[in-house]
Amino acid sequence: MGQFDFNRLRRLEDAEAIRNLIASYGPLADSGDASAVAALWTGDGSYSVGDFGVAKGRQAITALIESDMHQNLMKQGCGHILTSPHIILGNDSAIATNHSIVFRHVDDRYETWRVSANRWQLVHTDDGWRVGHRDNRPLSGDERARALLSL
Amino acid sequence: MGQFDFNRLRRLEDAEAIRNLIASYGPLADSGDASAVAALWTGDGSYSVGDFGVAKGRQAITALIESDMHQNLMKQGCGHILTSPHIILGNDSAIATNHSIVFRHVDDRYETWRVSANRWQLVHTDDGWRVGHRDNRPLSGDERARALLSL
Amino acid sequence: MGQFDFNRLRRLEDAEAIRNLIASYGPLADSGDASAVAALWTGDGSYSVGDFGVAKGRQAITALIESDMHQNLMKQGCGHILTSPHIILGNDSAIATNHSIVFRHVDDRYETWRVSANRWQLVHTDDGWRVGHRDNRPLSGDERARALLSL
């Protein structure tokens, strides 16, 4: 019974940690903390961003945030919005599924720049939960984006 | 004390399960998994969608997702965004309140099509938490939409 | 071990309570429940809303919701959307970070009026978790808004 409760606690803590990990992406991206964004991933983790290609490893993910595109977006004003994920929890791995939206500030108004599907493969490491792979693709009618959201 | 902890665990698990149930709606709707959307509801559950009327029972809810309107929305590109709900938890029932937004892809940009209030009546069944009734109404100045959000 | 589990339960309950507190802001603001909005704060809590200044104490926060600006927004149709917060939990205090978006209904469409950074200082009181201070600032290129999101 103690062991049973312990496993139930552990599962709740896992869900909580995964949710907090994903909830940190938007604030870290919008405050431009490139190394902290990269540290959400495992050392050899990867991030596939629609048609921009795949960033492999923390250095490549850091470079995404340090890129002119991202830095200009920040200066212009942007919001990286992520929804609370649906989580399928395994023992030391998990799949999370959610939406992300990027708003950008243009001429005193906000434009909805991207509305995307996201699928996160998460792994439990010695340092806690990290992203093994994140797949992001705009929901612009592309069947591959819809497929990311299948549960 | 053991029993006490057990109840506290159970309440946390209930909140987690309800959050995950609601978090699955957007991914399932956007990937077009009509029967899985319907299975979020109880067998005789119902879904009131603003002025579109009330879908009663799983067959009617399946039909919403299989409708030309929803299928065209998917092909065009859409995102069904739901916020993390406020949850009032009873023993075997709960009320959750949140917002939903539907973005649609039009001419290479995203249009905010609907911003709605949602009130979910949830019930704990032998198969876990399910939706007994969901009430959705666009926040377009309609007093009935605002009333759905009163806590 | 019992004590250990108890602390782990308490931390999960704290995160859950903080998430539910923040999740209630949007529904309460959009349903116009001014006194319930104010009651999310401590008696001497404060709410800094970008360039609108700082509302100090529950009476001032009540006045924000009862203001002509907010009441007109509600009549016109609006949605106060908040993302699931990143939470850094202390013993009796916490920092939560998230985004908020205000949509308003204009001429049969929805306009993205504000996309903001939020930083919440929360305190555990005898009545449960309350907001000690909330800092909100639009992400319009302002460095101070980005700074609110640093973790």
Summarize the structure.
3 copies of one chain form a homotrimer. The first copy, chain A, is α+β, with helices and mostly antiparallel strands.
Descriptive overview:
Three copies of one chain form a homotrimer. With 151 residues, the first copy, chain A, is α+β, with helices and mostly antiparallel strands. The first copy, chain A, is 39% helix and 42% strand. Chain A contains five helices and seven strands. In chain A, strands 1, 2, 3, 4, 5, 6 and 7 form a seven-stranded mixed β-sheet that branches. In chain A, a hairpin with a 3-residue loop joins β4 (86-89) and β5. The first copy, chain A, is globular and about 55 Å long. The first copy, chain A, starts with a helix and ends with a helix. In chain A, 47% of the residues are buried. The model of chain A has no long low-confidence stretch (mean pLDDT 96). The B-C interface holds B 1, 5, 8-9, 12, 15, 83-87, 97-99, 101, 111-117, 138-142, 145-151 and C 2, 5-6, 9, 12-13, 16, 19-20, 23-24, 26-28, 30-33, 36, 74-84, 103, 105, 108-112.
Helix/strand/pairing class of chain A, anyone? alpha+beta
Q: What oligomeric assembly is this protein in?
A: homotrimer
Low-pLDDT residue intervals, each spanning 5 or more residues of chain A: none
Tell me the greatest interface.
A-B, 34 and 37 residues
Largest sheet of chain A: 7 strands, mixed
Number of strands of chain A: 7
The H/E string of chain A reads HHEEHHEEEEEH
The CA-CA distance between the termini of chain A, in Å, is 32 Å
Helix content of chain A: 25-40%
Please, how many helices of chain A?
5
Per the principal axes of the C-alpha atoms, what is the gross shape of chain A? globular
CA gyration radius of chain A, whole angstroms: 16 Å
DSSP strand content of chain A: 35-45%
pLDDT averaged over residues of chain A: 96
